[in-house]
UniProtKB/TrEMBL annotation:
It comes from Rhamnella rubrinervis. This is Hcy-binding domain-containing protein. The keyword Membrane does not apply. Gene3D superfamilies: Homocysteine-binding-like domain. The keyword Zinc applies. GO terms for biological process: methionine biosynthetic process; methylation; S-methylmethionine cycle.
Length: 338
Protein backbone atom coordinates (compact mmCIF):
# COMPACT_ATOMS: atom_id res chain seq x y z
CA UNK A 1 0.00 0.00 0.00
CA UNK A 2 1.44 3.36 -0.89
CA UNK A 3 1.87 6.09 -3.45
CA UNK A 4 4.74 7.17 -5.67
CA UNK A 5 6.63 10.38 -4.84
CA UNK A 6 4.79 12.49 -7.39
CA UNK A 7 1.39 11.31 -6.18
CA UNK A 8 2.33 11.87 -2.55
CA UNK A 9 3.45 15.44 -3.19
CA UNK A 10 0.10 16.40 -4.75
CA UNK A 11 -2.11 14.11 -2.61
CA UNK A 12 -3.39 16.75 -0.19
CA UNK A 13 -3.59 19.56 -2.75
CA UNK A 14 -5.71 17.29 -4.99
CA UNK A 15 -7.93 16.36 -2.07
CA UNK A 16 -8.37 19.99 -1.04
CA UNK A 17 -9.34 20.88 -4.62
CA UNK A 18 -11.99 18.18 -4.56
CA UNK A 19 -13.32 19.58 -1.28
CA UNK A 20 -13.53 23.11 -2.69
CA UNK A 21 -10.29 24.49 -1.23
CA UNK A 22 -10.86 23.68 2.45
CA UNK A 23 -11.41 20.38 4.21
CA UNK A 24 -13.27 19.61 7.42
CA UNK A 25 -11.86 17.13 9.92
CA UNK A 26 -13.77 15.40 12.68
CA UNK A 27 -13.79 16.58 16.30
CA UNK A 28 -12.85 15.09 19.67
CA UNK A 29 -13.09 11.36 19.26
CA UNK A 30 -12.71 10.27 22.86
CA UNK A 31 -14.97 13.14 23.89
CA UNK A 32 -17.76 11.81 21.72
CA UNK A 33 -17.23 8.23 22.96
CA UNK A 34 -17.68 9.55 26.50
CA UNK A 35 -20.81 11.44 25.49
CA UNK A 36 -22.19 8.07 24.36
CA UNK A 37 -21.46 6.63 27.79
CA UNK A 38 -17.97 5.11 27.44
CA UNK A 39 -15.77 5.12 30.55
CA UNK A 40 -12.24 5.95 29.41
CA UNK A 41 -10.57 5.85 32.82
CA UNK A 42 -8.11 3.23 31.64
CA UNK A 43 -4.48 3.16 30.45
CA UNK A 44 -5.80 2.46 26.95
CA UNK A 45 -8.09 5.51 27.12
CA UNK A 46 -10.21 5.62 23.93
CA UNK A 47 -8.52 2.49 22.52
CA UNK A 48 -10.29 0.53 25.22
CA UNK A 49 -13.47 0.81 23.12
CA UNK A 50 -11.85 -1.17 20.30
CA UNK A 51 -12.11 -4.12 22.69
CA UNK A 52 -15.23 -3.33 24.69
CA UNK A 53 -17.50 -1.37 22.35
CA UNK A 54 -16.56 -1.30 18.66
CA UNK A 55 -20.17 -0.39 17.84
CA UNK A 56 -19.64 2.93 19.70
CA UNK A 57 -16.47 3.59 17.72
CA UNK A 58 -18.43 3.16 14.47
CA UNK A 59 -21.24 5.32 15.82
CA UNK A 60 -18.86 8.18 16.65
CA UNK A 61 -17.32 8.09 13.17
CA UNK A 62 -20.83 8.27 11.72
CA UNK A 63 -21.73 11.20 14.00
CA UNK A 64 -18.80 13.13 12.56
CA UNK A 65 -19.55 12.15 8.97
CA UNK A 66 -23.13 13.32 9.47
CA UNK A 67 -21.74 16.59 10.87
CA UNK A 68 -19.79 17.23 7.64
CA UNK A 69 -16.31 15.77 8.16
CA UNK A 70 -14.14 15.09 5.10
CA UNK A 71 -11.53 13.31 7.20
CA UNK A 72 -12.24 10.92 10.06
CA UNK A 73 -9.45 9.87 12.43
CA UNK A 74 -9.35 6.31 13.75
CA UNK A 75 -9.55 5.15 17.38
CA UNK A 76 -5.87 4.13 17.39
CA UNK A 77 -4.51 7.25 19.19
CA UNK A 78 -3.68 5.28 22.35
CA UNK A 79 -3.83 1.82 20.73
CA UNK A 80 -0.36 0.29 20.93
CA UNK A 81 0.83 -3.28 20.82
CA UNK A 82 2.70 -2.61 24.08
CA UNK A 83 -0.45 -1.23 25.72
CA UNK A 84 -2.58 -4.17 24.61
CA UNK A 85 0.07 -6.63 25.81
CA UNK A 86 0.01 -4.94 29.22
CA UNK A 87 -3.70 -5.86 29.30
CA UNK A 88 -2.85 -9.51 28.71
CA UNK A 89 -3.59 -9.62 24.99
CA UNK A 90 -1.22 -11.41 22.63
CA UNK A 91 0.89 -9.57 20.09
CA UNK A 92 -1.34 -10.90 17.30
CA UNK A 93 -4.47 -9.72 19.08
CA UNK A 94 -2.95 -6.28 19.56
CA UNK A 95 -2.02 -6.08 15.89
CA UNK A 96 -5.54 -7.19 14.99
CA UNK A 97 -7.04 -4.37 17.07
CA UNK A 98 -4.91 -1.81 15.25
CA UNK A 99 -6.23 -3.11 11.91
CA UNK A 100 -9.72 -3.15 13.35
CA UNK A 101 -9.54 0.57 14.19
CA UNK A 102 -9.10 1.33 10.48
CA UNK A 103 -11.62 -1.28 9.40
CA UNK A 104 -14.32 0.29 11.60
CA UNK A 105 -13.67 3.76 10.19
CA UNK A 106 -13.82 2.39 6.63
CA UNK A 107 -17.09 0.62 7.47
CA UNK A 108 -18.53 3.87 8.81
CA UNK A 109 -17.56 5.62 5.57
CA UNK A 110 -19.26 2.84 3.54
CA UNK A 111 -22.41 3.09 5.65
CA UNK A 112 -22.38 6.86 5.26
CA UNK A 113 -21.97 6.66 1.48
CA UNK A 114 -24.72 4.02 1.24
CA UNK A 115 -27.06 6.24 3.17
CA UNK A 116 -26.21 9.22 0.98
CA UNK A 117 -26.96 7.18 -2.14
CA UNK A 118 -30.27 6.01 -0.72
CA UNK A 119 -31.25 9.49 0.41
CA UNK A 120 -29.68 11.14 -2.60
CA UNK A 121 -32.83 13.01 -3.51
CA UNK A 122 -33.07 14.66 -0.06
CA UNK A 123 -29.34 15.10 0.00
CA UNK A 124 -29.15 17.02 -3.27
CA UNK A 125 -32.17 19.12 -2.28
CA UNK A 126 -30.38 19.88 0.96
CA UNK A 127 -27.56 21.48 -1.00
CA UNK A 128 -25.17 18.61 -0.24
CA UNK A 129 -23.41 16.40 -2.70
CA UNK A 130 -23.58 12.64 -2.62
CA UNK A 131 -19.92 12.44 -3.56
CA UNK A 132 -18.41 14.40 -0.68
CA UNK A 133 -14.84 13.12 -0.47
CA UNK A 134 -13.97 11.33 2.77
CA UNK A 135 -10.55 10.11 3.88
CA UNK A 136 -9.71 7.77 6.74
CA UNK A 137 -6.67 8.91 8.74
CA UNK A 138 -5.06 6.33 11.02
CA UNK A 139 -4.17 8.00 14.31
CA UNK A 140 -0.75 7.57 15.89
CA UNK A 141 -0.52 9.15 19.32
CA UNK A 142 2.85 9.88 20.89
CA UNK A 143 4.91 7.74 23.26
CA UNK A 144 3.58 10.12 25.94
CA UNK A 145 0.02 9.06 25.11
CA UNK A 146 0.96 5.42 25.68
CA UNK A 147 2.44 6.37 29.07
CA UNK A 148 -1.15 7.38 29.92
CA UNK A 149 -0.09 10.07 32.38
CA UNK A 150 -0.72 13.13 30.21
CA UNK A 151 2.92 13.23 29.06
CA UNK A 152 1.81 14.30 25.61
CA UNK A 153 1.22 17.68 27.23
CA UNK A 154 4.74 17.94 28.68
CA UNK A 155 6.86 16.16 26.08
CA UNK A 156 9.45 15.48 28.79
CA UNK A 157 10.41 11.84 28.39
CA UNK A 158 13.72 12.04 30.28
CA UNK A 159 17.23 11.25 29.09
CA UNK A 160 16.57 7.52 29.02
CA UNK A 161 14.29 7.91 26.04
CA UNK A 162 16.34 8.36 22.89
CA UNK A 163 15.56 8.70 19.21
CA UNK A 164 16.10 4.96 18.88
CA UNK A 165 13.73 4.21 21.80
CA UNK A 166 10.99 6.14 20.02
CA UNK A 167 11.67 4.53 16.64
CA UNK A 168 11.58 1.06 18.22
CA UNK A 169 8.40 1.93 20.08
CA UNK A 170 6.50 3.16 17.02
CA UNK A 171 7.85 0.93 14.24
CA UNK A 172 5.50 -2.05 14.20
CA UNK A 173 2.35 -0.03 14.83
CA UNK A 174 3.17 2.39 12.01
CA UNK A 175 3.91 -0.51 9.64
CA UNK A 176 0.59 -2.14 10.48
CA UNK A 177 -1.44 1.05 10.13
CA UNK A 178 0.30 1.87 6.85
CA UNK A 179 -0.93 -1.42 5.42
CA UNK A 180 -4.39 -1.34 6.94
CA UNK A 181 -6.36 0.36 4.16
CA UNK A 182 -6.20 3.87 5.70
CA UNK A 183 -5.66 6.79 3.32
CA UNK A 184 -3.09 8.48 5.50
CA UNK A 185 -1.48 8.42 8.93
CA UNK A 186 -2.19 11.24 11.39
CA UNK A 187 0.76 11.56 13.77
CA UNK A 188 -1.04 13.70 16.34
CA UNK A 189 -0.48 15.61 19.57
CA UNK A 190 3.27 15.38 18.96
CA UNK A 191 4.93 16.98 21.97
CA UNK A 192 8.59 17.37 20.99
CA UNK A 193 11.17 17.49 18.25
CA UNK A 194 12.70 14.08 19.06
CA UNK A 195 9.44 12.30 18.34
CA UNK A 196 8.92 14.20 15.06
CA UNK A 197 12.44 13.13 14.07
CA UNK A 198 11.64 9.52 14.99
CA UNK A 199 8.49 9.56 12.80
CA UNK A 200 10.35 11.09 9.85
CA UNK A 201 13.22 8.59 10.07
CA UNK A 202 10.83 5.65 10.43
CA UNK A 203 8.82 6.62 7.37
CA UNK A 204 12.00 7.02 5.38
CA UNK A 205 13.95 3.98 6.60
CA UNK A 206 11.01 1.58 6.47
CA UNK A 207 10.01 2.78 3.00
CA UNK A 208 6.50 3.61 4.22
CA UNK A 209 4.76 5.30 1.32
CA UNK A 210 1.38 6.16 2.74
CA UNK A 211 0.84 9.95 3.10
CA UNK A 212 1.03 11.36 6.61
CA UNK A 213 0.55 14.53 8.59
CA UNK A 214 2.44 15.65 11.67
CA UNK A 215 0.53 17.83 14.12
CA UNK A 216 2.02 19.27 17.28
CA UNK A 217 0.51 20.52 20.53
CA UNK A 218 1.42 23.79 22.23
CA UNK A 219 0.53 25.57 25.45
CA UNK A 220 1.89 29.03 24.70
CA UNK A 221 1.39 29.72 20.98
CA UNK A 222 5.17 29.96 20.49
CA UNK A 223 6.71 26.55 21.07
CA UNK A 224 5.47 22.98 21.19
CA UNK A 225 4.58 21.73 24.69
CA UNK A 226 8.12 20.49 25.51
CA UNK A 227 9.54 23.95 24.78
CA UNK A 228 11.05 22.85 21.46
CA UNK A 229 10.72 25.35 18.65
CA UNK A 230 7.65 24.98 16.45
CA UNK A 231 9.83 26.19 13.57
CA UNK A 232 12.23 23.29 14.05
CA UNK A 233 9.44 20.77 14.51
CA UNK A 234 7.57 21.96 11.43
CA UNK A 235 10.81 21.97 9.43
CA UNK A 236 11.33 18.28 10.21
CA UNK A 237 7.80 17.61 8.94
CA UNK A 238 8.43 19.75 5.87
CA UNK A 239 11.57 17.77 4.96
CA UNK A 240 9.79 14.44 5.18
CA UNK A 241 8.67 13.27 1.72
CA UNK A 242 5.58 11.42 3.00
CA UNK A 243 4.25 14.40 4.94
CA UNK A 244 1.34 15.98 3.07
CA UNK A 245 0.23 18.44 5.77
CA UNK A 246 1.74 20.01 8.88
CA UNK A 247 -0.07 21.58 11.78
CA UNK A 248 -1.38 21.83 15.30
CA UNK A 249 -3.91 19.83 17.29
CA UNK A 250 -5.16 19.59 20.89
CA UNK A 251 -4.13 23.17 21.64
CA UNK A 252 -6.33 26.03 22.88
CA UNK A 253 -7.88 28.09 20.06
CA UNK A 254 -6.31 31.34 21.32
CA UNK A 255 -2.81 30.03 20.49
CA UNK A 256 -3.53 28.80 16.98
CA UNK A 257 -3.13 31.96 14.90
CA UNK A 258 0.49 32.64 15.82
CA UNK A 259 1.39 28.98 15.40
CA UNK A 260 -0.03 28.91 11.85
CA UNK A 261 2.04 32.00 11.02
CA UNK A 262 5.19 30.30 12.35
CA UNK A 263 4.54 27.07 10.45
CA UNK A 264 3.87 29.00 7.25
CA UNK A 265 7.42 30.42 7.48
CA UNK A 266 8.98 26.98 7.06
CA UNK A 267 6.64 25.04 4.78
CA UNK A 268 4.44 25.47 1.75
CA UNK A 269 2.63 22.20 2.53
CA UNK A 270 -1.05 22.49 3.54
CA UNK A 271 -1.57 23.46 7.18
CA UNK A 272 -3.98 21.40 9.28
CA UNK A 273 -5.38 22.61 12.57
CA UNK A 274 -7.75 20.98 15.03
CA UNK A 275 -7.68 22.75 18.37
CA UNK A 276 -9.22 21.52 21.60
CA UNK A 277 -11.83 23.55 23.49
CA UNK A 278 -9.21 25.37 25.58
CA UNK A 279 -9.95 23.37 28.72
CA UNK A 280 -7.24 21.66 30.79
CA UNK A 281 -6.61 17.92 31.11
CA UNK A 282 -6.28 16.37 34.57
CA UNK A 283 -4.20 13.29 33.76
CA UNK A 284 -4.53 11.75 37.20
CA UNK A 285 -8.31 11.55 37.05
CA UNK A 286 -8.44 11.37 33.24
CA UNK A 287 -10.91 14.23 33.16
CA UNK A 288 -11.03 17.61 31.48
CA UNK A 289 -11.30 20.53 33.85
CA UNK A 290 -13.85 23.10 32.79
CA UNK A 291 -11.94 26.33 33.01
CA UNK A 292 -11.73 28.72 30.13
CA UNK A 293 -13.11 26.59 27.33
CA UNK A 294 -14.63 28.28 24.28
CA UNK A 295 -18.10 27.55 22.95
CA UNK A 296 -18.75 26.51 19.37
CA UNK A 297 -19.59 30.04 18.24
CA UNK A 298 -16.33 31.43 19.61
CA UNK A 299 -14.42 28.54 18.08
CA UNK A 300 -15.86 29.27 14.66
CA UNK A 301 -15.27 33.00 15.01
CA UNK A 302 -11.53 32.26 14.78
CA UNK A 303 -11.86 30.45 11.43
CA UNK A 304 -11.48 33.47 9.14
CA UNK A 305 -8.21 34.51 10.80
CA UNK A 306 -6.87 30.95 10.64
CA UNK A 307 -7.66 30.81 6.93
CA UNK A 308 -5.99 34.18 6.33
CA UNK A 309 -2.91 32.96 8.18
CA UNK A 310 -2.69 30.03 5.77
CA UNK A 311 -4.47 26.96 7.16
CA UNK A 312 -6.75 24.88 4.93
CA UNK A 313 -7.83 21.84 6.99
CA UNK A 314 -9.97 22.51 10.07
CA UNK A 315 -11.46 20.34 12.76
CA UNK A 316 -11.57 19.94 16.50
CA UNK A 317 -9.72 17.91 19.11
CA UNK A 318 -10.54 17.10 22.73
CA UNK A 319 -13.83 18.45 24.11
CA UNK A 320 -15.10 19.53 20.70
CA UNK A 321 -18.17 17.71 19.40
CA UNK A 322 -20.18 17.07 16.22
CA UNK A 323 -21.80 20.48 16.84
CA UNK A 324 -18.39 22.13 16.54
CA UNK A 325 -17.79 20.30 13.27
CA UNK A 326 -21.24 21.21 11.94
CA UNK A 327 -20.48 24.84 12.74
CA UNK A 328 -17.08 24.70 11.01
CA UNK A 329 -18.58 22.97 7.99
CA UNK A 330 -21.35 25.57 7.73
CA UNK A 331 -18.95 28.49 8.14
CA UNK A 332 -16.70 27.18 5.37
CA UNK A 333 -19.61 26.46 3.03
CA UNK A 334 -21.17 29.90 3.65
CA UNK A 335 -17.83 31.56 3.00
CA UNK A 336 -17.12 29.74 -0.24
CA UNK A 337 -20.58 30.69 -1.55
CA UNK A 338 -19.77 34.40 -1.20
C1 LIG B 1 -4.92 13.66 24.52
S1 LIG B 1 -4.90 13.19 26.22
C2 LIG B 1 -6.41 13.77 26.82
C3 LIG B 1 -5.12 11.43 26.06
C4 LIG B 1 -5.21 10.69 27.31
C5 LIG B 1 -3.90 10.53 28.02
N1 LIG B 1 -2.88 9.96 27.19
C6 LIG B 1 -4.14 9.63 29.23
O1 LIG B 1 -4.07 8.41 29.13
O2 LIG B 1 -4.44 10.18 30.28
N1 LIG C 1 -7.74 11.60 17.93
C1 LIG C 1 -7.70 11.77 19.37
C2 LIG C 1 -6.73 12.84 19.72
C3 LIG C 1 -6.56 13.07 21.16
S1 LIG C 1 -5.48 14.39 21.52
C4 LIG C 1 -9.08 12.07 19.88
O1 LIG C 1 -9.76 12.89 19.26
O2 LIG C 1 -9.50 11.52 20.88
ZN1 LIG D 1 -6.95 16.12 21.86
Amino acid sequence: MGLGSAETSTFMFDFLNKCGGYAVLDGGFATELERHGADLNDPLWSAKCLISSPHLVRRVHLDYLDAGANIIITASYQATIQGFEAKGLSREEGEGLLRKSVQIACEARDIYYDRCTKDSWDFVEDGGSSSRPVLVAASVGSYGAYLADGSEYSGKYGDGVTLQTLKDFHKKRVQILANSGADLIAFETTPNKLEAQAYAELLDEEGIDIPAWFTFSSKDGVNVVSGDSILECASIADSCRQVVAVGINCTPPRFIHSLISSIRKVTSKPIVIYPNSGETYDAENKKWVKSSGVNDEDFVSYLGKWREAGASLFGGCCRTTPNTIRAISKALTDKSNH
